[in-house]
Amino acid sequence: MGEQFYSLPLVASVPDQDMTIGFDGNFFSVRVFFSTTTHLWWLELSSVDMAVTLSQIVLRPNVMHGLSGKVPGYAGSASIGMVTRRSGAVYGSIDAFAGDFGLFIADTVTV
Predict the structure, then answer these.
(1) Domain span at residue 86?
(2) Cα(70)–Cα(78) distance, rounded to whole angstroms?
(3) For residue 39, how far is the Cα from the chain centroid?
(4) CA distance 40 to 74
(5) What's the pLDDT tens digit per position in 28-69?
(6) Residues with Cβ < 8 Å from 98, sequence gap 6 or more?
(7) Whole-angstrom Cα distance, residue 69 to residue 88?
(8) Per-residue DSSP letters for 8-77?
(9) Which of 7, 50, 67, 83 is deepest in the core (most CB within 10 A)?
């Protein structure tokens, strides 16, 4: 058993982005946005039609958040979070995803 990481595509220097992703048969919307007042990156999980916000999470470097309990119908071990790609990366910047950090989903894979 090992962990497999899947990169989610974010456009560098765009402070508010939405995407729909499917994972283990579940589909949901992901919004990643930068708060200019607090200089924090936020992740918002919503139903696919964006009618219901399931969870709002502050993204921190190298902190993964489990999806179980945050996405209806999902009880697996997957997690989502912000991963540092190079040392000296600046978190509190609108350019954080311009190579310094990446947004990833991780899941346990059995071989």
Answers:
(1) 2-109
(2) 11
(3) 17
(4) 27
(5) 889 999 999 999 999 998 878 777 777 889 999 999 998 887
(6) 12, 13
(7) 33
(8) E---TT-SEEEEEEEETTEEEEEEEEEETTTTEEEEEEE-TTSSSEEEEEEE-BTEEEE-TTTSTT--SS
(9) 67
Provide the domain count of the chain: 1
> Strand, coil or helix: what is 90?
coil
Q: Can you give the length of the chain in residues?
A: 111
Which residue, chain included where needed, has tokens 């209806």?
Answer: 72
Tokens representing 31 are: 């919004």
**70-109 residues labelled b (16+ CB within 10 A) or e (exposed):** bbeebeeebbbbbeeeeeeeeeeeeebbeebbbbbbbbee
How much is the pTM?
A: 0.84
- How far is it, in rounded angstroms, from Cα 11 to Cα 19? 11
